[in-house]
Here is the input.
Amino acid sequence: MFILSVIPLTKIPRPAPQAFDYFASDKISIGGIVQIKIAHRSLLAIVISCVPVGQKKQSIKKSSFQIKPIDKVINKNAVIPRHHIELVLWTSSYFYSSLGLTMKALLPKSFARPTKKFLAELAALPPIPRAGQGETHKPVVYWNRDSAEKINYYTSKIRTTLKDGKYILFLVPELYKISYFGKKIPLLSDENCFIGTRSALSTPRQNLGLIIIDEEESPFYKSFDQQPYINAKTVALKLGELTGAKIILGSSLPSVESLWAVKKKKYAPETSSSKREAPDVKIVDMRQELKHGNYSILSGELQTRLKNVINNNEQAILFINRKGLSTGLLCRDCGHLIKCPNCDVPMVYHNTAYGIRHMAYILICHHCGQKQRPPTLCPECESYRIKFIGTGTQRVEQELNKLLIRDPAKTRNYRIGRIDLDVAPTLGYQQKIFQDFSEKKYSVLIGTQIMLKPELLGQVDLAAIITIDPILSFPDFRINEQVMRLVNKLSTSTCNQLLLQTYSPDNYVIQNVSNISLMSEIENRRELSLPPFSQLIKLVYAHKDPIKAEQEAKILKNKLLVQWDSLLPNIRYTIYDIQILGPAPAFIPRTGNRYVWQIMLKSKIKDLTLRNRLLRVVPGDWKIDVDPIETL
Here is the structure.
């Protein structure tokens, strides 16, 4: 008889035990697969240890629960590599996520709902030979703004790895890049190459030689809407450490964290001549436009350049971070702003010619989807002096049409395209718009964040940011970096100057927007002890009752303080190694009719076991987000 320790492929909330012991009549290898029962549910489980009963007699006698036998052996051989089990164990600990859920996320989808055919295939799998850990390599940060040079670099590294007879894992942040790189790098069709988004980590590979993480700074590597809340980039870096695979972090502008790792010599830099080319940005002061009587959202210079582009049969892209006609509806008498009844956010004014029947105009909440007709009178004071404020993609389209209609002699045969989630909710629609733009069916393309795909945009003659100010107003520590990244992406899509319109030309970020090194941002983070100089953990709680939400947040804050005080006598760290900030309402304090409160932990603790002992007091109905992409 043997005692198996297994990971059930199901969510078991922490801090409950994450692995369970079962009896087995035969020895089963680590990485074998068995079927067990938990609370009358039949589940697959991965074996992580197997010892004879005799070695655990004392612990069995002391156990407070009865050890049960497994239901069935699916495959007694090691079909899950050791390094993959270690990866899952580390990932679950680092992100403080359910071990079973993490294992399920890092295995092929067939494990989630196993069919009889899949179980038969599992049973027939041969054992995987145990591979030793290879030589550890420093991750390489490849910094290059030239896409053609980047393709050549990737191709060279992939070719070398294939000649060595090893596997390549190529991670991309978005789906469209799979087909893009598949066309640009034919070697990726080799059976030893695997390209995909963060789900590509769910295919365990032996003999892994190279991991490429393209656009390493992308927020899309983080799972923020579905458990477990893990970051594929972080997991891939650990995978490289466990397997000895070489790692390339590709980027046109690396993250602050990667730049700091290069400075500390934890990562190796590799650059090209084009990397250092700073974007050519012209800042347009919109305050001066108002002084000269121009009340349009398009500056005089932008208007002139747009007319020239269209007259010369060239192309332009216009970026704005909002869809819709206006970002709000304001009463000019009492100041009432029309908000969503379910969320504490202004409703956005839309022209619904693209979807909703019988309604020309409508107010939409971008958080819960609530829709309503715009009122003709203020709901508070019944004033008729209602004004639409702010700007969205539809408003830019309207303004541009007005401008071009006034001068038909110079702007014949133009066509304006728009790309946002209203007109292009899926990748298929987006790719069709990009294809039409590349075929010059549009003279001007207006878009939100989903337009920022330089590989699909190609080179245009004019690029402009309609307004940068709403982005700068967000109280998040990554905003400066995001603005510089936005400018970097747009500037790579034009061979000419990038126009940046703003009412805040003296803002520190605007003044330094052409400096793509981000080194000054590293110093700002150091002064405030923000990542990479600490780790952030965001704890979020939501409830329909605002009093209940606030009370639960205050209770948890007290529990965290008590728990930390109890840990201090047994450790060498000082109290300054962790800060417990909050509780406070979230930036959007109510979404989906639920009131949201959060607590932020700013930690310098390197010991995951110690840090997780603090997190044990967080109830299961709280969201624990380790290394959040945003703090709002």
Notes: The chain has a mean pLDDT of 88. Residues 286 and 498 are 15 Å apart (CA to CA).
